[in-house]
Amino acid sequence: MWLIMEIVEHVSVRIDHIKELFVDALNEGDSEEMKRKFGFAVRYHSDLLELGFYINKCFSSSMLCLILLGAAILGCASFGYMQAGSSTYLIVCACWFFGLAIICISGQHLTDESLSIGDVIYDTKWYEVGLSLRKDILFVMMRCQRPMILRAAGFGVMNYIMIVSVLRTSYSFVSLLGATS
Protein backbone atom coordinates (compact mmCIF):
# COMPACT_ATOMS: atom_id res chain seq x y z
CA MET A 1 0.00 0.00 0.00
CA TRP A 2 2.81 2.38 0.88
CA LEU A 3 4.59 1.50 -2.36
CA ILE A 4 1.53 2.34 -4.45
CA MET A 5 1.06 5.59 -2.56
CA GLU A 6 4.71 6.55 -3.13
CA ILE A 7 4.50 5.68 -6.83
CA VAL A 8 1.39 7.82 -7.19
CA GLU A 9 3.13 10.69 -5.42
CA HIS A 10 6.08 10.31 -7.80
CA VAL A 11 3.72 10.41 -10.78
CA SER A 12 2.03 13.46 -9.24
CA VAL A 13 5.38 15.27 -9.09
CA ARG A 14 5.95 14.34 -12.73
CA ILE A 15 2.51 15.70 -13.62
CA ASP A 16 3.38 19.00 -11.94
CA HIS A 17 6.57 19.07 -14.02
CA ILE A 18 4.58 18.41 -17.19
CA LYS A 19 2.26 21.29 -16.35
CA GLU A 20 5.28 23.59 -15.97
CA LEU A 21 6.67 22.37 -19.30
CA PHE A 22 3.40 23.07 -21.11
CA VAL A 23 3.15 26.55 -19.60
CA ASP A 24 6.79 27.27 -20.41
CA ALA A 25 6.34 26.08 -23.99
CA LEU A 26 3.20 28.12 -24.60
CA ASN A 27 4.74 31.27 -23.12
CA GLU A 28 7.78 31.01 -25.42
CA GLY A 29 8.22 33.95 -27.79
CA ASP A 30 9.93 32.11 -30.65
CA SER A 31 7.48 29.90 -32.59
CA GLU A 32 10.07 27.24 -33.50
CA GLU A 33 11.25 26.98 -29.91
CA MET A 34 7.61 26.86 -28.80
CA LYS A 35 6.95 23.89 -31.10
CA ARG A 36 10.08 22.09 -29.88
CA LYS A 37 9.25 22.61 -26.20
CA PHE A 38 5.61 21.69 -26.74
CA GLY A 39 6.62 18.50 -28.58
CA PHE A 40 8.90 17.55 -25.70
CA ALA A 41 6.08 18.13 -23.19
CA VAL A 42 3.71 15.99 -25.28
CA ARG A 43 6.23 13.11 -25.45
CA TYR A 44 6.81 13.38 -21.71
CA HIS A 45 3.05 13.29 -21.10
CA SER A 46 2.72 10.26 -23.35
CA ASP A 47 5.49 8.46 -21.46
CA LEU A 48 3.78 9.24 -18.17
CA LEU A 49 0.49 7.84 -19.47
CA GLU A 50 2.35 4.67 -20.43
CA LEU A 51 3.79 4.51 -16.91
CA GLY A 52 0.22 4.68 -15.57
CA PHE A 53 -0.65 1.68 -17.74
CA TYR A 54 2.24 -0.31 -16.26
CA ILE A 55 1.33 0.69 -12.71
CA ASN A 56 -2.16 -0.71 -13.25
CA LYS A 57 -0.73 -3.83 -14.87
CA CYS A 58 1.51 -4.47 -11.86
CA PHE A 59 -0.82 -3.62 -9.00
CA SER A 60 -4.43 -4.03 -10.14
CA SER A 61 -4.75 -7.63 -8.90
CA SER A 62 -3.30 -6.63 -5.51
CA MET A 63 -5.83 -3.83 -5.24
CA LEU A 64 -8.64 -6.22 -6.14
CA CYS A 65 -7.56 -8.52 -3.29
CA LEU A 66 -7.44 -5.53 -0.96
CA ILE A 67 -11.00 -4.61 -1.85
CA LEU A 68 -12.46 -8.10 -1.64
CA LEU A 69 -10.63 -9.18 1.48
CA GLY A 70 -10.91 -5.75 3.05
CA ALA A 71 -14.69 -5.73 2.90
CA ALA A 72 -14.95 -9.19 4.46
CA ILE A 73 -12.32 -8.58 7.11
CA LEU A 74 -13.70 -5.18 8.06
CA GLY A 75 -17.18 -6.66 8.37
CA CYS A 76 -16.11 -9.69 10.40
CA ALA A 77 -13.77 -7.70 12.65
CA SER A 78 -16.46 -5.07 13.26
CA PHE A 79 -18.92 -7.80 14.19
CA GLY A 80 -16.30 -9.41 16.45
CA TYR A 81 -15.72 -6.10 18.19
CA MET A 82 -19.44 -5.58 18.73
CA GLN A 83 -19.80 -9.10 20.16
CA ALA A 84 -16.62 -9.44 22.23
CA GLY A 85 -15.57 -5.85 22.76
CA SER A 86 -11.92 -6.79 22.30
CA SER A 87 -9.59 -4.04 21.16
CA THR A 88 -7.84 -6.56 18.88
CA TYR A 89 -10.81 -6.48 16.53
CA LEU A 90 -10.78 -2.70 16.58
CA ILE A 91 -7.08 -2.63 15.65
CA VAL A 92 -7.69 -5.02 12.76
CA CYS A 93 -10.50 -2.76 11.49
CA ALA A 94 -8.35 0.34 11.80
CA CYS A 95 -5.40 -1.23 9.95
CA TRP A 96 -7.48 -2.55 7.05
CA PHE A 97 -9.39 0.71 6.74
CA PHE A 98 -6.15 2.70 6.84
CA GLY A 99 -4.67 0.56 4.05
CA LEU A 100 -7.78 0.90 1.93
CA ALA A 101 -7.89 4.65 2.53
CA ILE A 102 -4.24 5.07 1.49
CA ILE A 103 -4.85 3.39 -1.86
CA CYS A 104 -8.18 5.06 -2.60
CA ILE A 105 -7.03 8.55 -1.65
CA SER A 106 -3.91 8.06 -3.78
CA GLY A 107 -6.06 6.94 -6.71
CA GLN A 108 -8.31 9.98 -6.35
CA HIS A 109 -5.25 12.22 -6.15
CA LEU A 110 -3.85 10.70 -9.34
CA THR A 111 -7.14 11.26 -11.15
CA ASP A 112 -7.42 14.87 -9.99
CA GLU A 113 -3.83 15.70 -10.88
CA SER A 114 -4.04 14.19 -14.35
CA LEU A 115 -7.23 16.11 -15.10
CA SER A 116 -5.59 19.37 -14.03
CA ILE A 117 -3.11 19.26 -16.95
CA GLY A 118 -5.84 20.31 -19.39
CA ASP A 119 -6.92 23.11 -17.06
CA VAL A 120 -3.38 24.48 -16.88
CA ILE A 121 -3.04 24.42 -20.67
CA TYR A 122 -6.42 26.12 -21.04
CA ASP A 123 -5.35 28.91 -18.68
CA THR A 124 -2.45 29.85 -20.98
CA LYS A 125 -2.79 32.02 -24.07
CA TRP A 126 -3.01 28.99 -26.33
CA TYR A 127 -5.40 30.78 -28.65
CA GLU A 128 -2.63 33.19 -29.68
CA VAL A 129 -0.29 30.54 -31.15
CA GLY A 130 -0.16 29.40 -34.77
CA LEU A 131 -2.95 27.30 -36.25
CA SER A 132 -0.98 24.04 -36.56
CA LEU A 133 0.20 24.18 -32.93
CA ARG A 134 -3.27 25.22 -31.80
CA LYS A 135 -4.67 21.99 -33.26
CA ASP A 136 -2.04 19.99 -31.38
CA ILE A 137 -2.93 21.82 -28.18
CA LEU A 138 -6.59 20.96 -28.64
CA PHE A 139 -5.69 17.27 -29.09
CA VAL A 140 -3.67 17.34 -25.87
CA MET A 141 -6.52 19.06 -24.03
CA MET A 142 -8.96 16.43 -25.31
CA ARG A 143 -6.62 13.64 -24.15
CA CYS A 144 -6.38 15.28 -20.72
CA GLN A 145 -10.15 14.85 -20.29
CA ARG A 146 -9.55 11.10 -19.84
CA PRO A 147 -7.77 10.86 -16.49
CA MET A 148 -5.15 8.45 -15.25
CA ILE A 149 -6.76 6.06 -12.79
CA LEU A 150 -5.79 3.21 -10.49
CA ARG A 151 -7.79 0.11 -11.34
CA ALA A 152 -8.66 -2.88 -9.22
CA ALA A 153 -8.38 -5.58 -11.93
CA GLY A 154 -11.43 -4.43 -13.85
CA PHE A 155 -13.55 -4.47 -10.70
CA GLY A 156 -13.49 -0.76 -10.12
CA VAL A 157 -11.49 2.40 -9.78
CA MET A 158 -9.60 3.19 -6.61
CA ASN A 159 -11.09 6.51 -5.49
CA TYR A 160 -13.35 7.96 -2.80
CA ILE A 161 -16.34 6.09 -4.17
CA MET A 162 -14.51 2.78 -3.67
CA ILE A 163 -13.99 3.54 0.03
CA VAL A 164 -17.73 4.02 0.44
CA SER A 165 -18.49 0.87 -1.55
CA VAL A 166 -16.19 -1.25 0.61
CA LEU A 167 -17.67 0.21 3.79
CA ARG A 168 -21.19 -0.54 2.52
CA THR A 169 -20.19 -4.12 1.79
CA SER A 170 -18.60 -4.38 5.24
CA TYR A 171 -21.83 -3.17 6.80
CA SER A 172 -23.66 -5.86 4.82
CA PHE A 173 -21.33 -8.47 6.35
CA VAL A 174 -22.03 -7.09 9.83
CA SER A 175 -25.79 -7.20 9.18
CA LEU A 176 -25.58 -10.75 7.81
CA LEU A 177 -23.53 -11.97 10.75
CA GLY A 178 -25.87 -10.23 13.18
CA ALA A 179 -28.93 -11.85 11.59
CA THR A 180 -27.41 -15.34 11.71
CA SER A 181 -26.21 -15.23 15.31
TrEMBL record:
<keyword id="KW-0807">Transducer</keyword>
<keyword id="KW-0812">Transmembrane</keyword>
<keyword id="KW-0675">Receptor</keyword>
<feature type="transmembrane region" description="Helical">
    <location>
        <begin position="88"/>
        <end position="107"/>
    </location>
</feature>
<dbReference type="GO" id="GO:0007165">
    <property type="term" value="P:signal transduction"/>
</dbReference>
<protein>
    <submittedName>
        <fullName>Odorant receptor 40</fullName>
    </submittedName>
</protein>
<dbReference type="InterPro" id="IPR004117">
    <property type="entry name" value="7tm6_olfct_rcpt"/>
</dbReference>
<keyword id="KW-1003">Cell membrane</keyword>
<feature type="transmembrane region" description="Helical">
    <location>
        <begin position="63"/>
        <end position="82"/>
    </location>
</feature>
<dbReference type="Pfam" id="PF02949">
    <property type="entry name" value="7tm_6"/>
</dbReference>
<dbReference type="GO" id="GO:0005549">
    <property type="term" value="F:odorant binding"/>
</dbReference>
<keyword id="KW-1133">Transmembrane helix</keyword>
<dbReference type="GO" id="GO:0004984">
    <property type="term" value="F:olfactory receptor activity"/>
</dbReference>
<keyword id="KW-0472">Membrane</keyword>
<dbReference type="GO" id="GO:0005886">
    <property type="term" value="C:plasma membrane"/>
</dbReference>
<keyword id="KW-0552">Olfaction</keyword>
<feature type="transmembrane region" description="Helical">
    <location>
        <begin position="148"/>
        <end position="167"/>
    </location>
</feature>
<keyword id="KW-0716">Sensory transduction</keyword>
